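Appendix B. One record, verbatim.
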Amino acid sequence: QVNLVESGGGLVQAGGSLRLSCAASGRIDRINHMGWYRQAPGKQRESVASITSGGSTVYAESVKGRFTISTDNAKNTVYLQMNSLKPEDTAVYYCAAWRLSTYWGQGTQVTVSS
């Protein structure tokens, strides 16, 4: 089992920044990707950004140039630095980790006010 614990969500004004963190513990050998998803009210969960164990990254078009995903392998932690936040970024953000199976965090609320 892989356990994921997120932190860093909150309320911010449009144009502001937040950094999300997700610490992984347990069977780390069962994952080689980590990433962030988000789900806004009434919408499907969508991928925001992901990173491989080798450092390759993928971003959703809507966040390119504004969000940065990174990892601290020594701490088994993935970060999502979110800049220039927009009201449409408001959602519950979920950390995910996977290789053959996908593991999910509990989610953290991000609210961007206009």
